[in-house]
Amino acid sequence: MSDAASSPHPDPDAWARDIEDQVLSLALPHVAQLGWSPLLVARAGAEAGLSQGEIELLFPNGAADLAALLCRRHDHETLAILAKTDPQALKIRERIRLAVETRLDAAGQDEAVARRWSGFLALPQNLALASRLLWDSADQLWRWAGDTATDENHYSKRAILSGILSAALAIRLASGRGASMTFVDARIANVMSFEKWKATTKLRPSEALKGLAQTLGRMRYG
């Protein structure tokens, strides 16, 4: 009997997650040939012993669901590695560099898979999914780094890091690990300079936006 079944509070979704993970593992060897396509989902699902109905139940969005699973697997692997390091022992820029480097290494384990994955998510119909996945990855990295911001910084940090992750992976696939980390170092330096500027200026983005909104409101309603 499985641990889930013997637990006093079994997780009803554990079986689905286990099967999804199995299908993903079976799919990856076929990605280079089949791409992220309905055929890939059908092939991996059949190899896992699933019926067509079960495949459609577990993967209602087809290859997009598989692509999301791969991203979340890489997130999980990244956090497992980062858990071995105490972020408080590092400067903030060192934490972010390590987090990004570890996340890129996870995504770059199989460059053929990563290349097809990136191309799939770059399709217009998948851009919303790509944005959500990047945001989730950036959020988890910032949380590991100890970020507790709840103001506009919470969103700006994740938006900036999402952009760095996306561009750095593209550079890694095109030019290699060294080039991608050179890019990451330069962008982190830019961000640190911006944060230093914010700490010394009286300008606050949120206050500026609030003032603009108030001005527009007066123009509209008097």
Describe this entry's structure for a reader.
This protein has 222 residues and is mainly alpha-helical. The chain is 77% helix and 0% strand. It is globular, with a radius of gyration of 21 Å. 24% of the residues are buried.
Write the layout of secondary structure elements.
Blueprint: H1 3-6, H2 14-34, H3 38-47, H4 52-58, H5 63-82, H6 92-107, H7 111-121, H8 127-144, H9 152-175, H10 177-200, H11 205-221
Helix pairs in contact: 2-3, 5-6, 5-8, 6-8, 6-9, 6-10, 8-9, 9-10
Shape: globular
- For the secondary structure, the number of strands is 0
Through-space gap between termini: 70 Å
| Rg, nearest Å | 21 Å
Largest sheet: number of strands, sense, barrel closure? none
Overall helicity:
over 70%
Number of helices: 11
Percent of residues in β-strands: under 5%
The secondary-structure element order is: HHHHHHHHHHH
Runs with pLDDT <50, length 5+? Answer: none
What structural class results from the helix and strand content? mainly alpha
Look at the structure and give the mean pLDDT.
Answer: 87
